[in-house]
Amino acid sequence: MKIALNPLQQGIVSFLQSNETWMRPLLTERIFDNIDLKAEGDRLANPAVSYPDYYKQDFHSVDGGYLNKDAAITYDPITEKILVPSESFLRKEFAAYFPANAKRVLDLGCGTGTATRAIAERLPDADVIGADLSPYMVAAAKLKAKHLSNVSFIHGNAEHLPFEDASFDAVTASLLFHEMPPDAGLSVMREALRLLKPNGVFLVFDGAQGDGLAKLGGQISSSMFLEPYAEPFLAGNLATMMRDAGFTDVSITPMMMIYDVRKGVKAA
User: Fold this and answer.
1) H or E stretch including 117?
2) Three state DSSP letters for 215-246
3) Which of 164, 169, 229 is closest to 191 using CA atoms?
4) How many angstroms from the chain centroid is the CA of residue 245?
């Protein structure tokens, strides 16, 4: 069952829909001009993948959320402006946390692949794989990363992926956990632990939790930008969840006051 929109959210959705003609060019990544992204996504979709109920929500004022091609088409230009100081800056900063000797990296919930590309550029000798539950995000990510030879993408659910145990040096997730309920987030972390080699690292970039500024930002995001799981995210603690999933040496590094980088290690 979809989470009901509050009056503010419904007003934003109605405004976007009624002004789509003039707003669409402002909110659309131009690289998709003349590309039938729906057809590409449908072609890449793995028929074995099923969508959990929590994913069948409207996210970011897009009807149908990430299962609507428009979510992929509009994601980058909006996110670049909403994230402070910019998405491109944050992705580059986050990529610097990856160990230089990592040879195989998995990006969970990769979306349009902005973080995946930043990691691949940081680690040109590594095999970097992005996985996302939206086939349209995967199609967009493949298009935007076609200049990088060390990147590939799959359509898959981060809670259970078709990779062997202990097959990655690093697993990561950026801006993923605030968009799923905590039980699903814990499942994703346990899958990350399974996929990591001993001493492998799990790196998570997402909003800060706990303090007043973080909560205020999350509440604004939840109310205005239709983040259905922002409230339970703000009430939770990703570092504690990482420990519950089995990670050791969990640490938190603040970034720009409103974000945190969490790091966990798979025991040897």
Assistant:
1) helix 114-122
2) HHHHHHHHHHCCCCCHHHHHHCCHHHHHHHHC
3) 164
4) 19
**In a 3-state reduction of DSSP, which class is residue 103?**
coil
CB 188 within 8 A of CB 176: yes
Q: Which residue has the tokens 């945190």?
A: 260
User: Which of 97, 233, 256 minimizes the C-alpha distance to 171?
Assistant: 97
Kindly report, residue by residue over 120-173, the tens digit of the pLDDT: 999 999 999 999 999 999 999 999 999 999 999 999 999 999 999 999 999 999
Phi first, then psi, for residue 259 (nearest 5°) are -125, 160
Closest CA to 189 of 159, 220, 145, 224: 159
Residue type for 200, please? G
pLDDT in tens, 193-211: 999 999 999 999 999 987 6
pTM score of the predicted model: 0.89
Can you state the angle between helices 182-195 and 238-245, rounded to 10 degrees?
50
Q: Which domains does the chain have, with CATH numbers?
A: 1-268 (3.40.50.150)
Return the number of other C-beta atoms located less than 10 Å from residue 100's C-beta: 9
- Kindly report whether the peptide bond that precedes residue 85 is cis, defined as omega within 30 degrees of 0: yes
Side chain identity at 195, as an amino acid letter? L
